[in-house]
Write a structure and sequence with these properties.
Blueprint (H helix, E strand, L loop, with lengths): L1 E4 L1 E4 L2 E8 L17 H27 L1 H13 L3 H11 L5 H17 L4 H21 L12 E5 L4 H5 L6 E6 L7 H9 L3 E3 L12 E5 L4 E4 L3 H22 L6 E2 L5 E8 L2 H9 L5 E5 L1 H5 L7 H14 L5 E4 L10 H4 L14 H6 L1 H15 L4 E5 L5 H20 L8 E6 L2 H5 L1 H4 L6 E3 L1 H9 L17 H17 L3 E3 L7 H10 L3 E4 L4 H10 L7
Helix pairs in contact: 1-2, 1-3, 1-5, 3-4, 4-5, 9-11, 11-14, 14-15, 20-21
Length: 541
């Protein structure tokens, strides 16, 4: 048995034969079809690709919804990009063959994307490569898509979003690629379509064609030629996963309550509009954490007020009245955005200018975001959440900026709605001062990841100090108890939105403290709901 490690892109286990997809070009002469110039050939290919993308959009709309289908609208816009198609035309006008012109223009744009400092933008290089590949296939008279004749695990150097959306779900068991990342549009579509996937194995898969393998989308492994014992283990995992899915499906639409008869809502952590569709699919009771830093990381300058408004409004509409808690910009530390944070390194970035500190240093960022949020609150159930609060003075300044946003909207004659504003408790200082902070805000949300890191002074990314964080340290438990006690006295709710919220072993403790909302990754919603409904406990307060 050979174990090939990659990056998990879409969860689930499958066992079957591998079908490899070859990218070798046809050795025959490229088709000319009577075109009198290479520029005409290029324009014909672009026109045909554009019409294909229209059909792909319609297909994706039915399979994965409008937000994910927009991938193909973005690709269509690339067909009009001056740095890509415009450059290719300039080269064909000089007599260069259309295929070579496309390759040259694409290589330059791919290099530019790969040089960017965010994983999301780097992943856009794969989009350019996929579009260039399809245009060359059209020029060579090749049809698009992958044909399967039996249920298979598809293996390829990479898959384009077009190839992914066209996969026959009745025949594709899962897929594995040599390149790619979990931030690629292909990986996003795989998750939306429920196809187990592993990307970036960084080795040729050509020798795996026709071989039986296990694809483990949870751990990112491909087990080639598994022995009988391993096959038996995974057959058992697959059976248990199906049984768990059937059991959890019975909890859809159910509501959970604590021992005091209060609703305990199980909400979702999301990073963009696509994730909200996924959260709704998993029966979320709203969104407890909408991470807005990705809106800023995916571009070369801050999103405008109008762009943010449209995103927040769309998020609220998808949730059909359930609350959407939007975290204001949380940049800095491990989420550096070069046009905001600059290239200067900090000795201790986790303790430096990040999150609310950055926004108070550059208040126009928070003012614009608040204006967009207040406008969205006029049409949906939107709340704002401020990260990395340490002192009451920070909350006071945030409230001043919020008031300034409302006043400026009034001056501009724009409609805005009432909006709850809460804070994240993720520093020991905030937990200790929770009694002073509670009267200033509408809710608390405990970010367990950073709260643990800062309380025990241990980098959560450093495995050598992981022992300080597991199991949940008593010092962190006391911080959580203080936070919940202060919230109860003030009459405001408490949510847990860190990874610990999905840990069933901690559910009872959170409920005992008085937590009334848990916000978790969408696939964990039903499992956490089950843990809440099964918990036996007594409230501390």
């Amino acid at each position: 048995m050979t174990v090939i490690q990659g990056t998990p892109a879409s969860g689930g286990y499958v066992l079957g034969k591998i079908r490899t997809v070859s990218r070798t070009a046809d050795p025959g002469r490229e088709l000319r079809n009577g075109f009198i110039s290479e520029t005409e050939r290029l324009d014909h290919a672009v026109d045909k690709a554009s019409r294909e993308l229209d059909r792909l959009y319609e297909s994706a709309l039915k399979k994965v919804g409008e937000n994910s289908a927009q991938i193909f609208e973005i690709h269509k816009m690339m067909l009009e990009d001056e740095d890509f198609i415009g450059e290719a035309r300039r080269l064909t006008d000089t007599g260069m063959e259309a295929e070579n012109a496309l390759r040259s223009a694409a290589d330059n744009l791919i290099a530019a994307f790969r040089a960017m400092d965010t994983e999301y933008m780097q992943a856009r290089a794969a989009d350019v490569e996929g579009i260039a590949r399809r245009l060359c296939e059209i020029l060579e008279g090749k049809s698009g898509g992958i044909t399967l004749t039996e249920p298979s695990i598809v293996a390829a150097d990479d898959l384009t979003p077009a190839e992914t959306i066209l996969l026959d779900r009745n025949l594709v068991l899962g897929f594995v690629t040599e390149r790619g990342s979990e931030m690629s549009h292909t990986a996003i579509l795989a998750r939306m379509m429920g196809i187990p996937a592993v990307v970036g194995v960084r080795r040729s898969l050509a020798d795996c064609d026709g071989v039986t393998a296990i694809l483990d989308g949870d751990s990112g492994r491909l087990l080639v030629n598994p022995d009988e014992a391993m096959s038996g283990e995974y057959h058992q995992r697959i059976r248990k996963a199906k049984e768990e899915t059937a059991r959890l499906d019975l909890l859809r639409g159910r509501k959970s309550y604590n021992s005091a008869g209060e609703r305990v809502r199980i909400t979702a952590n999301v990073g963009d509009l696509d994730d909200i569709g996924e959260a709704v699919k998993w029966d979320c009771e709203g969104v407890g954490l909408f991470r807005t830093e990705f809106l800023f990381m995916r571009r070369s300058k801050p999103p405008t007020e109008e762009e943010q408004y449209e995103i927040y409004r769309s998020a609220a509409e998808q949730l059909n009245g359930e609350e959407c808690v939007v975290r204001t910009l949380d940049a800095g530390a491990d989420k550096r955005i070069s046009y905001l944070t600059g290239d200067a390194s900090e000795a201790n970035p986790a303790l430096g200018i990040r999150a609310v500190r950055l926004c108070l240093k550059m208040p126009e960022l928070l003012l614009t975001q608040f204006r967009a949020l207040y406008r969205a609150a006029a049409v949906g159930n939107i709340s704002a959440m401020i990260p990395m609060i340490t002192l009451p003075s920070e909350v006071e300044r945030v409230r001043e900026i919020a008031a300034e946003a409302r006043a400026s909207l009034d001056r501009d004659g724009l409609k805005w709605g009432r909006m709850k504003v809460g804070i994240m408790i993720e520093t020991p200082s905030a937990a200790i001062l929770a009694d002073l902070l509670a009267p200033m805000v509408d809710f608390f949300s405990i970010g367990t990841n950073d709260l643990i890191q800062y309380t025990v002074a241990a980098d959560r990314e450093n495995p050598d100090v992981a022992y300080l964080s597991t199991p949940l340290p008593e010092s962190v438990r006391r911080c959580i108890k203080m936070t919940c006690s202060a919230a109860r006295r003030e009459g405001i709710p408490v949510c847990v939105c860190g990874e610990l919220g999905a840990d069933a072993a901690q559910t009872r403790f959170f409920l005992e403290c008085g937590v009334t909302k848990l916000s978790v990754a969408p696939p964990k919603i039903l499992k956490v709901r089950e843990a809440v409904m099964a918990a036996k406990y007594s409230r501390m307060y």
